[in-house]
Amino acid sequence: MADTPSTNDQPVKVGLGRHVLFYQDGDHKSDCPIEFDGRRLQIYTHWIQHWQPPYENEPIAPEKRAEIIRSIEAYLQKTREPYTIHDSSE
User: Fold this and answer.
1) E strand or H helix at 62, and its extent?
2) Residue 16 burial by CB count (10 A; 0-12/13-18/19+): exposed, middle or buried?
3) Among candidates 53, 62, 64, 68, which has minimal Cα distance to 21?
């Protein structure tokens, strides 16, 4: 897992798990399921909806989702893992 800068002076954790990318910002954590088509990781932004308990009833705002995607993308660029991000807002 790698630390990346955060806007609230706490390190943001981004790492690759088993069929899921995970994101942690302070005490807020979220999972982003991924697909692997044999060549590239496939990441769908609309799968990032809520935080893990105890914040599961707190939706992730569009601005925060964009920040999560930027952090995931920065992490994947460091790993040189091929990926495609499918943005549901496009």
Assistant:
1) helix 62-79
2) middle
3) 68
Paired with 32 in beta bridges are: 21
Pairing relation of β-strands 41-44 and 83-86?
A: parallel
From the centroid of its chain, how far is CA 37? 19
Domains of the chain: total: 1
Q: What is the pTM of this model?
A: 0.72
In a domain, 66, yes or no: yes
Measured between alpha carbons, how far is 53 from 43 in angstroms, rounded to an integer?
Answer: 22
pLDDT tens figures, 16-46: 445 788 899 999 999 888 888 778 888 888 8
Give the pLDDT confidence score for residue 60 in this predicted structure.
92
Tokens linked to 5: 């800068």
Domain assignment of residue 71, given as a range: 32-46+58-90
